[in-house]
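Record type: ASSEMBLY
Status: queued
Input:
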Amino acid sequence: MSDALSLADRARTGDVRARARLITLIERDDPERLGALSALRASARGSAHVVGITGPPGAGKSTLTDKIVSELRSRGRTVAVVAIDPSSPFTGGALLGDRIRMNRHATDEGVFIRSLATRGHLGGLSRATGETVRLLDALGYDDVIIETVGVGQSEVDIVRLADTVVLVSVPGLGDDIQAIKAGVMEIGDVFCVNKADRDGAERVVREIRSMLETAVMNGAATRFSELFAALADRKQAAREPENADARAHFSQGAAHHIAADGHGSLELPPVVATVAETGQGVRELVDHIKAHEAGLEATGLLAKQRRANLAWELGTEAAGRLVGLLEHEERREEVAALADAVLARCMDFHDAVAGVERSLAEAIRSKGS
Amino acid sequence: MERKIRVLVAKPGLDGHDRGAKVIARALRDAGMEVVYTGLRQTPEQIVAAALQEDVDVIAMSILSGAHNHLFPRVMDILRERNVQDILVIGGGVIPDDDIPALKAAGIAGVFTPGTPTSATIDFIKNNLKRSV
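Status: finished
Output:
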């Protein structure tokens, strides 16, 4: 048996070291992993529910993740956690501290936790996250939780990997204009206001609801607007007597998702107040996370979302490889020469870009031959 | 291929003094390593489980309670039970000189007592890894 196949086999049969080793190989972009990943059929997503936990630094994401893991375990589900923390842009080192809140699960065989450093990748995740999540999915974990780095306003890559995104806010971060800004606030499927025992928590809940109401009234295209439209269609179809099939597909979970936090006649995503430290509100939060997945599944949006996301990942990966090609010495010299020409005002900027493109096309041709 | 030395910094036992652990975690980070910090009051079982899931090259333990003669060898025992031979294990803290030979015999490759410059620990790790990073 080749090394790759033996690694795949050991990982499949529950060998923690083999699983951990495969993730290391993914992080290193080591070609040695490819045979094993292929044997494990880890290229496409499987049956795991992938949940993203994102929010600003200090919002309590790790503590919340720890409690969500406990809740999912009590429901008999196995859980993998991928926790991401930033690397230093100067030394390349990283202090990965998310485990501090979660390590009590380390000896539970139904839980696998892995910390990843961003290694220079922007967007709130590490480059290895997508492949790592697909591996853990293929290995059969029922739920895969991705905890992003503490995000600011534009680290939104989590929507490309997670089926359900939980956006965690806390009281005391700023005035309500923060909730209007585009970016991070738009990506939630389920909203959570953590540290709800602190002053100002109710106000944050109100502000988020009001932001969501406005988004719905303005007809803004968000993650949840598409789901709500699809759910409404389902409901309509289910009412027509001849359409018993659609009615059968309209799951209870999906109905719950609409009703739970419906504010007046508007349908809004749920906003859940939690105190992660004590576990307060966590069961309700997990109910909403699961209801969201049920809604996606009932409407067929789950498959659609995964297809769009995989296409995005393919494009991003290919773009990364192109950038890699530019780093070859020969190419670097060509690009530097183009830069000289632009600086000397002998060439327009966009003509120089076209020159870089030609150089890349040449590199791809010679790579193929 | 991007290669990084990964280190688990752990505090076994019941003492709540993690200043030393944090100083070393920070120093290793600044030396370009990826440091997984597991926090206080970890059992040897939890430390080994975390080290395996994180696929670390090094386990660095800090202890100030005096329980090192029990807890450090216990970690080595569990590693042996699980047939793990390629993780470098080091320890630090308030450890009497007389205890060090027995700890080394148990498999703790390096023991660092108060006053050791962090650069000594960093060099020790770089020179004694049990697998190529």
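Annotation: The radius of gyration of chain A is 23 Å.
Annotation: The longest strand of chain A covers residues 79-85.
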